[in-house]
C-alpha cells in the first residue's frame, strides 16, 4: 500500500467514488477546483496499482478543513482511511496547524467511529446541512 498525492488525472475516478459512496457528493468540476487550490492537501492510497481511497482538505490559516475521506468498499477495514488521516495529521503538525475540523452526517456511524478513534470531538450540529440530513461538526486540536 502506498500513499501518494492525488492529482487532476484522478478526478474522474474520485468523482465516481463520491457519487457512489457519499450522500452529498462533490461534482467533477468542484473536485477540480479543490485540487487546483494551492492550500489543498489531497492524498490517495494505492494498492497494487488500484486507487483504493483518498482524502482531501484545505489549510485555512492555522486550521485544516477535511472535505472527505472515501475508501472503495472492497478495501475497507484494512486501515486505509486511518493511514490517510495519519498522514494528514503528520503534515498538519509539520505546518503548525492548531485545529482540524470536518462535517459528518449524523447517520454515518462508520465515519464517526473512525474520527473518534483519532480524537475528533463533537463541537456542534449543523441542522439539514446535507438537505434532509444534519451534520456534526467535529474538531481535533493538535
Ligand atoms: C468511513 C470510511 C472512510 C472508513 O474507511 P476504512 O478504511 O474502512 O477505515 P479503517 O479501516 O481505517 O478503520 C478505522 C476505524 O474506523 C472505524 N470504522 C471503520 N469502518 C467502520 C464501520 N463500518 N463500522 C464501525 N466502525 C468503523 C473503526 O473504529 C475502525 O477501527 P477498527 O477497524 O480497529 O475497528 C469508509 O467506510 C468509507 O469510505 N465510507 C463511505 C464514505 C464516507 O462516509 N466517508 C466519510 C465522509 S465524512
The fold-level CATH name is: Aminopeptidase
Q: What does the overall shape look like?
A: globular
Overall pLDDT score: 96
By DSSP, the count of extended strands is 7
Can you identify the CATH class? Answer: Alpha Beta
Number of helices: 4
Terminal Cα separation, in Å? 27 Å
Provide the CATH superfamily: Gcn5-related N-acetyltransferase (GNAT)
Low-confidence parts, pLDDT < 50 over ≥5 residues? Answer: none
Output the helix-strand order: EHHEEEHEHEE
CATH architecture: 3-Layer(aba) Sandwich
User: What does the largest sheet look like?
Assistant: 7 strands, mixed
Beta-strand content:
35-45%
* Tally of structural domains: 1
Helix content: 25-40%
Please list the strands of the largest sheet in the order they lie side by side: 1-2-3-4-5-7-6
Q: What ligand molecules are bound, each kind once?
A: coenzyme A
Class from secondary-structure proportions: alpha+beta
Keywords for this entry:
single chain; 142 residues; alpha+beta; Aminopeptidase; 7-stranded mixed β-sheet; 41% strand; binds coenzyme A
Could you give the topology of this structure?
Layout: E1 2-5, H1 11-21, H2 28-36, E2 40-47, E3 50-60, E4 63-71, H3 80-94, E5 99-105, H4 109-117, E6 121-130, E7 133-141
Coenzyme A is lined by residues 21-22, 68-71, 76-82, 104, 108-111, 113-114, 117.
Word description of this protein:
By secondary structure, the chain is α+β, with helices and mostly antiparallel strands. It has one domain (2-141): Aminopeptidase (3-Layer(aba) Sandwich), CATH 3.40.630.30. It contains four helices and seven strands, in the order E-H-H-E-E-E-H-E-H-E-E. The protein has helices at 11-21, 28-36, 80-94, 109-117; strands at residues 2-5, 40-47, 50-60, 63-71, 99-105, 121-130, 133-141. It has a seven-stranded mixed β-sheet with strand order 1-2-3-4-5-7-6, with helices on both faces. The chain is globular. The model has no long low-confidence stretch (mean pLDDT 96). Coenzyme A (COA) is lined by residues 21-22, 68-71, 76-82, 104, 108-111, 113-114, 117.
Amino acid at each position: 500500500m502506498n500513499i501518494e498525492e492525488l492529482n487532476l488525472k484522478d478526478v474522474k475516478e474520485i468523482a465516481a467514488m463520491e457519487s457512489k459512496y457519499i450522500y452529498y457528493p462533490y461534482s467533477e468540476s468542484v473536485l477540480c477546483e479543490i485540487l487546483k487550490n494551492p492550500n489543498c492537501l489531497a492524498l490517495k492510497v494505492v494498492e497494487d496499482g488500484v486507487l483504493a481511497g483518498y482524502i482531501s482538505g484545505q489549510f485555512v490559516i492555522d486550521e485544516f478543513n477535511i472535505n472527505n475521506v472515501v475508501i472503495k468498499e472492497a478495501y475497507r477495514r484494512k486501515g486505509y482511511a486511518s493511514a490517510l488521516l495519519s498522514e494528514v495529521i503528520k503534515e498538519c503538525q509539520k505546518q503548525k496547524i492548531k485545529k482540524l475540523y470536518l462535517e459528518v452526517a449524523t447517520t454515518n456511524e462508520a465515519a464517526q467511529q473512525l474520527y473518534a478513534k483519532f480524537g475528533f470531538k463533537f463541537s456542534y450540529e449543523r441542522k439539514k446541512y446535507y438537505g434532509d440530513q444534519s451534520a456534526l461538526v467535529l474538531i481535533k486540536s493538535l
